[in-house]
């Protein structure tokens, strides 16, 4: 069973390169470990996942605002957050094969898990990427590439609240890049050194935090049905006392069953007033909130939902991948499928290509669509199945007679005929986010 799952992951990785989803970064130079580039299909899938999340968080609600904070922040931000002091992992090296491991993930008493060689003593390794701002490389000019997007939200709490005239409870959502110098990245794009996060911090009054925590826990698990993720592939994992982060009062992970096992894809955390309180202490700025109803001043509590775009993209791929007797198919939810439709002329004559291109030109104002006139129709269908295109429209001789086209549905391969004038309406009803 383990070998079968490994083979599935290998096939998925191979498909991702072959069909333009994901490439190894700098591949012509031998690649760079745990860094990847998104190809034509991958960048569309990624954009659609982000759009779906943003729409559900910001557009469909009246209590959440958006933000795009800078990647480079004042270094004191990371002192206040605890990252400078505590964002570390224990690191060991094998003296024989030179491989590097996290000491808390292996049995160091058994030697190197790769070759059995002797391991070095553990030493602490900070996961933040450090660089310098300005022309001089000295300690006074040290800055960090942010390891998370949440701190940009906390330091802008009052800016957003005042400019948008918000009262508690309300949230701030952000999508952006983060960087972690992981010791042991792996499992394709599951754990990378450069990645993109989607985080929402919901600010509430002390005492209402547990109620809001349960609310967001249920809201987030429900959202995955919109992404097309099968419910039986999802579960909650509650953090026990020894797992809780230093800032957390309570934490749950949403886990997905990947080919390599159950792993976290999103975290829901009750961060209490830890972050705002620390930033008030380190910045010496007043971050108290005045409650107009109770006439009290207090530091709000925070309920956090945090997920990774890249990890969700891998989740979506793994959930959608299926092998059948005659085809490989990616069963994406139409809302996130990178290519919404394909249009084919049955043959390259009798005016069929011209009719097909007219249909494509009408659709491209609204959707990413594909035109293909090369090869047998069955082969063209299979190519679209492998990139997850939900609908294919074929122009044939009957189209020239009565103006109808054949619609072929990806999952069932069922076909029906509709008027070519209804193609846009047909797609609008089925693929809009």
Strand-pairing-aware structural class: alpha+beta
Q: Say which CATH homologous superfamily of the largest domain is assigned.
A: Bira Bifunctional Protein, Domain 2
Number of helix segments?
Answer: 13
Assign the CATH class of the largest domain: Alpha Beta
User: Might you state the CATH topology name of the largest domain?
Assistant: BirA Bifunctional Protein, domain 2
Shape: globular
Main sheet characteristics? 7 strands, mixed
CATH arch. level architecture of the largest domain: 2-Layer Sandwich
Helical amount: 25-40%
Features of the shown structure:
single chain; about 425 residues; alpha+beta; BirA Bifunctional Protein, domain 2; Rossmann fold; 7-stranded mixed beta sheet; 5-stranded mixed beta sheet; about 30% helix; globular
Write the layout of secondary structure elements.
Elements (H helix, E strand, L loop, with lengths): L1 H17 L3 E3 L11 E3 L1 H20 L4 E4 L7 H6 L2 H4 L1 E6 L6 E3 L20 E4 L2 E4 L9 E4 L4 H5 L2 H8 L5 E10 L14 E11 L4 H18 L7 E5 L11 E9 L2 E12 L1 H10 L5 E2 L6 E2 L2 E8 H12 E3 L4 E3 L10 E5 L6 H12 L5 E3 L5 H11 L3 E5 L1 H6 L1 E6 L5 E5 L3 H9 L2
Give a verbal description of the structure.
The protein has 13 helices and 23 strands. The chain has helices spanning 2-18, 40-59, 75-80, 83-86, 150-154, 157-164, 209-226, 274-283, 309-320, 352-363, 377-387, 397-402, 423-431; strands spanning 22-24, 36-38, 64-67, 88-93, 100-102, 123-126, 129-132, 142-145, 170-179, 194-204, 234-238, 250-258, 261-272, 289-290, 297-298, 301-308, 321-323, 328-330, 341-345, 369-371, 391-395, 404-409, 415-419. Strands 3-9-10-16-13-12-11 form a seven-stranded mixed beta sheet, with helices on both faces. Helix 2 (40-59) crosses helix 9. The chain starts with a helix and ends with a helix.
């Amino acid at each position: 069973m383990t070998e079968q799952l490994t083979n599935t992951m290998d096939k998925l990785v191979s498909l991702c390169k072959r069909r333009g989803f994901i490439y190894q970064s700098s591949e012509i130079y031998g690649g760079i470990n745990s860094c990847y580039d998104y190809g034509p299909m991958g960048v569309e899938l990624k954009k659609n996942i982000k759009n779906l999340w943003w729409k559900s968080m910001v557009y469909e609600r009246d209590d959440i605002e958006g933000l795009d904070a800078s990647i480079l922040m004042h270094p004191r931000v990371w002192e206040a957050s605890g990252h400078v002091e505590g964002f570390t992992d224990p690191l060991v090296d094998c003296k024989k094969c030179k491989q590097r491991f996290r000491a808390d993930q292996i049995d160091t008493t058994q030697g190197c898990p790769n070759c059995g060689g002797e391991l070095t003593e553990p030493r602490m390794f900070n996961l933040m990427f450090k660089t310098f701002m300005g022309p001089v490389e000295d300690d006074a000019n040290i800055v960090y590439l942010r390891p998370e997007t949440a701190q940009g939200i906390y330091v802008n709490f009052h800016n957003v609240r005042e400019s948008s005239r918000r009262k508690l409870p309300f949230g701030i959502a952000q999508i952006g890049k983060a960087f972690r110098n992981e010791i042991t990245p792996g499992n394709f794009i599951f754990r990378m050194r450069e990645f993109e996060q989607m985080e929402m911090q919901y600010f509430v009054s002390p005492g209402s935090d547990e109620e809001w925590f349960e609310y967001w826990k249920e809201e987030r698990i429900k959202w995955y049905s919109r992404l097309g993720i099968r419910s039986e592939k999802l579960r909650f994992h509650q953090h026990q006392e020894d797992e809780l982060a230093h800032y957390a009062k309570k934490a749950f992970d949403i886990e997905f069953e990947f080919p390599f096992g159950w792993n976290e894809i999103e975290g829901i955390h009750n961060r209490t007033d830890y972050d705002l309180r620390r930033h008030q202490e380190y910045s010496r700025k007043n971050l108290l909130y005045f409650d107009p109803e109770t006439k009290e001043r207090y530091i709000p509590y925070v309920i956090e939902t945090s997920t990774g775009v890249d990890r969700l993209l891998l989740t979506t791929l793994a959930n959608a991948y299926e092998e059948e007797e005659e085809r490989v198919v990616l069963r994406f939810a139409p809302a996130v499928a990178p290519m919404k439709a394909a249009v084919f002329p049955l043959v390259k004559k009798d005016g069929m290509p011209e009719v097909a291109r007219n249909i494509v030109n009408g659709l491209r104002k609204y959707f990413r669509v594909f035109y293909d006139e090369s090869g047998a129709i069955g082969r063209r269908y299979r190519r679209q199945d492998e990139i997850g295109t939900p609908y294919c429209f074929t122009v044939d001789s009957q189209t020239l007679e009565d103006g109808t086209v054949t619609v072929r549905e990806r999952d069932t391969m069922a076909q029906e005929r509709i008027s070519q004038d209804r193609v846009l309406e047909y797609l609008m009803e089925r693929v809009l986010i």
